[in-house]
UniProtKB/TrEMBL annotation:
Residues 61-188 form the FAD-binding FR-type domain. PANTHER family: OXIDOREDUCTASE NAD-BINDING DOMAIN-CONTAINING PROTEIN 1. One of its GO terms (cellular component) is mitochondrion. The keyword NAD applies. It holds the Pfam family NAD_binding_1. Keywords: NAD, Oxidoreductase. One of its GO terms (molecular function) is oxidoreductase activity. The keyword Zinc-finger does not apply. This is Oxidoreductase NAD-binding domain-containing protein 1.
């Protein structure tokens, strides 16, 4: 699972180069030095690998050591890793990904972070949800990764949501396909943290509504579904979700039924939740992104308010 970047960044999100911390490259391990050039391009001729696809994306210079402190099955084909970050200066924005360096594995992985920046601030950990494939980094996660395994991470990506307290309130629509939920789940968790901050302190960014549309083959492949529903219950009228399944062969469980539609996401679904100022984030397979982007433009959303992250 690798990602290519969004191409436009509005003022609300434009906090990339020069703002994220830039630190020494002293933490570069031999693996990183061997397989990466200074600008992040891969020396290997492997076609369309993560580093090549994201060579022009923003990247922090810092590469931090990390240790696997939790492994869980998120679904039959997706493992969720919890990683303890060694460097206290390590930061990321909701929606970004990491270069994933594994000792002894030549290929550098690219995985979107699925946890919130708040979890990193509070507990010093972040989480990744990695789908099983033959790609070496994903294969390692599913076949060789163990607790206390040591890896290294570097944050990158122009696809993120990071409003500041003085920014105007905005509404979000998040649209995910398959494991494309990962960066959008990070954004959703960050939105919940923003609501909690205002409720606790009476100050902070005043978040508008957030509506998640998530499509997968069946309900078993709807990652984080219980947590997502929990957020809609915790923030009624502020966070909503609509699950869509396209190849469901078994009955949908009673608890999920109110949230699930057995069809693809349609323009009619989206138009009920958008206005011309809504920010729309999309992550999924390229055909889905192209289709949904066209829907949004036809519904009056300007191109500068549509952001996407493609995965392959």
């Amino acid at each position: 699972m690798s990602f290519a970047a969004v191409f436009t960044v509005p003022s609300l999100l434009r906090n990339a180069t020069g703002v994220l911390p830039v630190c020494s490259l002293a933490l570069l391990k031999h693996t990183a030095l061997r397989y990466c050039t200074a600008n992040g391009k891969m020396k290997s001729k492997r076609k369309a690998d993560h580093l090549e696809r994201t060579a022009n994306d923003f990247r922090q210079e810092m590469i931090s050591k990390a240790k696997v402190c939790g492994i869980a099955n998120e679904s039959e084909t997706v493992k969720r890793l919890r990683l303890a970050i060694a460097d206290k200066e390590f930061t990321f924005k909701a929606g970004q990904w990491v270069d994933f360096f594994i000792p002894g594995v030549a290929v550098v992985g690219g995985f979107s972070i699925c946890s919130s920046p708040g979890l990193l601030e509070q507990e010093g950990v972040l989480e990744l949800a990695v789908k099983q494939t033959t790609h070496p980094p994903a294969h390692w996660v599913h076949t060789q990764c163990t607790l206390d395994a040591e890896v290294a991470l570097r944050v990158g990506g122009n696809f993120f949501f990071d409003p500041q307290p003085s920014d105007s309130s905005t509404n979000l629509v998040l649209i995910a396909g398959g494991v494309g939920i990962n960066p959008l789940f990070s954004i959703l968790l960050h939105v919940a943290d923003l609501h909690r901050t205002v409720a606790k302190n009476g100050t902070g960014y005043q978040m508008g509504t957030t509506d998640l549309f998530y499509c997968a083959k069946n309900t078993n492949e709807l990652l984080f579904r219980k947590h997502i529903i929990g957020l809609t219950d915790a923030f009624p009228g502020k966070i909503s979700c609509s699950f869509h399944v396209t190849q469901q062969s078994s009955p949908i469980c009673e608890k999920l039924q109110p949230y699930v539609k057995e069809r693809r996401i349609s323009a009619n679904d989206l138009k009920k939740n958008i206005s011309k100022d809504t920010l729309c984030y999309i992550c999924g397979p390229p055909p889905m992104i192209e289709s949904v982007s066209k829907m949004l433009k036809n519904l009056g959303i300007s191109e500068e308010n549509i952001f996407f992250e493609k995965w392959w």
